[in-house]
Specification:
- The chain has one domain.
- It contains 3 helices and 2 strands, in the order E-H-H-H-E.
- It has a two-stranded parallel sheet.
- The longest helix has 12 residues.
- The chain is elongated, with a radius of gyration of 14 Å.
């Protein structure tokens, strides 16, 4: 299994995301027009490591707020 995170708001990127022009350029056309939070990637990792995901194999989970669908 794999987790493919999209644009996630980390401490290193937060300053760039605060610039309105950068934010619009990155997220203006997305289904969810904002960066993802690290906890959302962690939530998925915890689920995939649990018994609840014991029948999931060979999958790639994209966590990008819909960016890859556009």
């Amino acid at each position: 299994m794999a987790i493919s995170p999209g644009t996630i708001e980390t401490p290193g990127a937060a300053e760039q995301f605060a610039v309105p022009e950068v934010r619009e350029a990155l997220f203006g056309g997305d289904l969810i027009p904002r960066p993802g939070q690290p906890v959302k990637v962690v939530d998925l990792a915890v689920l995939l490591a649990s018994d609840e995901a014991s029948f999931i194999t060979g999958a790639n989970f994209v966590v990008d707020g819909g960016m890859s669908v556009i």
